[in-house]
Write a structure and sequence with these properties.
The complex is a heterodimer. By secondary structure, chain A is mainly alpha-helical. Chain A is built from 9 helices and 2 strands. The radius of gyration of chain A is 22 Å and the shape is flat. Chain B has a domain of about 160 residues: Rossmann fold (3-Layer(aba) Sandwich), CATH 3.40.50.300. In chain B, the strands form 2 sheets. Chain B has a 6-stranded mixed β-sheet with strand order 6-7-8-3-9-10, sandwiched between helices. Classes of the chains: A mainly alpha, B alpha/beta.
């Protein structure tokens, strides 16, 4: 997967692309905030959120496979909570039987697991849509126009550029490790990962220094400037804001 | 007129390592100067002084003006091409990267677009503007790095190890590209064939000192000097 590739050309012709990227970013952030602030016990609301998100996915013409790959990001969090749900011994008054098994688990932890799984899934799908629809510099420009703090925007821009460079470095380190310990025990190999992470951090830090020098050498003064023109707001933008705001209000207050 | 004048320049890194120990150097306008020496000789440290990224004790003048007097002007005149393109190309797309310098200089949008198009064309990367730097081959990344400097109409272009990692064909294509640049050039390198091919003068650095200077043919023929400072003599030199 490349940093600037889109899931497929279909998103170029998507209905959702008619909306200004700034509006899309605001709508997505509003959606993520509202659903994250909803208690999981009010589960019918989450069904409604999922329905609204499904409409957005269809309007974006994003493929299911592409979205599923993004959803893998949520797995570590869900697994961590699932593990604690299974491993923590429930107190007598909070124990519930896991459906279909004889296993007793903590009721509050089970609710937490459902909450993390639902909210992480909805958030990741929603946040993936703008990435699928627009080139990355357009989104960075949209964040700048929305007055998102400069440091935060730059962090996102550099992460986009360098996550694959660091990934390549990590892969080379793994190859170097494997070349010297082809039959090492799993535990030992896992332990080596810790020192590799430290080494990767130091390399990343040194690279950051060199990148900083390269930026200063070309007149960088603390402001990230991009040549992406912003277009005027149109009727479609106003309609998108009204529809999403209205839907979220209805779902949250109903 | 001298494009670069460095006088008695000293620099010590924060950890106490001496980078430069009293270096003095003149580079005439239009010259192509080769800078050779073993690792840790101070070549890169010296290059970083030429547009004010590092500030040691001593004097660095660009076309007669002290670099520290007007850093922004110095950075428009002296373009640095770093050894690793992943350090030089930090923006999401090649276009944004090449446009980075001109936008910082406050050029109007139309001028920036024209200059970026021209710079990409001059390094043979027309049509690659929308690509991520990560997707370019190393040779293309190196050429894009030159475009980021050419776009600013730099009168002095400074290269740090420009041919490192290139295959033979890419290396010679890159040497041809450097040769055709209409600028004063300073090239820090271990590649003595490159020096012999492009440079009219050569300086040898070692341990923060400038230990020798002269016409490229003379310096490269001095076997004793090259051996003393850990440099190989060209194969057919």
């Amino acid at each position: 997967m490349s940093p600037c590739d889109h899931p497929e050309q279909a998103t170029r012709r998507a209905l959702a692309r008619r909306v200004d990227p700034r509006v899309a970013v605001v709508c997505v952030l509003a959606f993520v905030t509202v659903q994250a602030a909803t208690p999981i016990e009010e589960w019918p609301r989450f069904v409604a959120y999922a329905g609204l998100l499904l409409i957005a996915v269809i309007a974006s013409r994003v493929s299911l496979v592409w979205l599923l790959k993004r959803l893998a990001l949520a797995l570590p969090f869900v697994i961590a909570v699932a593990m604690s749900t299974l491993l923590v011994r429930p107190s007598a008054d909070s124990a519930v039987r896991l459906p279909g098994t004889d296993l007793m688990v903590s009721g509050p932890l089970l609710i937490l697991l459902a909450s993390v799984a639902a909210k992480a899934t909805l958030s990741i799908v929603a946040l993936s849509l703008p990435v699928a629809l627009w080139d990355f510099p357009v989104l960075v420009r949209a964040l700048q126009a929305l007055r998102i703090p400069r440091l935060f925007v730059m962090l996102i821009a550099f992460m986009w550029r360098y996550v694959y460079v660091l990934g390549d470095e990590a892969r080379r380190m793994v190859q170097a490790r494997d070349a010297r310990s082809p039959r090492g025990r799993l535990v030992r190999r896992v332990l080596v990962v810790g020192s590799m992470a430290g080494s990767l951090f130091v390399r990343g830090y040194e690279r950051a220094e060199r990148v900083g020098q390269a930026m200063v050498a070309r007149g960088y003064d603390g402001r990230l400037r991009l040549l992406v023109p912003l277009r005027r707001f149109r009727a479609a933008d106003a309609a998108a804001v009204l529809v999403v705001a209205g839907a979220l209000c209805a779902m949250r207050l109903a | 007129m001298n494009a670069i004048e460095v006088t008695n320049l000293h620099y010590t890194y924060p950890d106490g390592t001496h980078g430069l120990r009293g270096v003095s150097l003149c580079v005439p306008e239009g010259a192509c100067l080769g800078m050779v020496g073993p690792n840790g000789a101070g070549k890169s440290t010296l290059l970083l002084h030429l547009n004010g990224i590092l500030n040691g004790h001593g004097s660095v003048r660009v076309f007669g003006k002290p670099v520290r007097e007007d850093l922004q002007a110095a950075r428009q005149i002296v373009g640095l091409v770093f050894q690793n393109p992943d350090d030089q190309l930090f923006m999401p797309t090649v276009f944004d990267d090449v446009a980075f310098g001109p936008l910082n200089l406050g050029w109007p949008e139309e001028r920036v677009r024209e200059a970026v198009t021209r710079a990409l064309e001059s390094v043979g990367l027309t049509g690659h503007g929308d690509r991520s730097p990560h997707h370019l081959s190393l040779g293309e990344q190196k050429r894009a790095s030159i475009a980021t400097v050419l776009v600013m109409d730099c009168r002095i272009v400074v290269f740090d190890e420009p041919t490192t990692g290139l295959d033979p064909r890419g290396r010679w294509e890159f040497i041809d590209l450097i040769r055709d640049l209409p600028a004063t050039k300073i090239i820090a390198t271990h590649d003595l064939d490159l020096v012999r091919e492009l440079c009219d003068r050569v300086v040898v650095m070692d341990d923060g000192h400038l230990v020798a200077e002269g016409p490229a043919a003379d310096v490269l023929a001095d076997q004793e000097l090259l051996e003393e400072h850990g440099l190989a003599k060209p194969l057919d030199g």
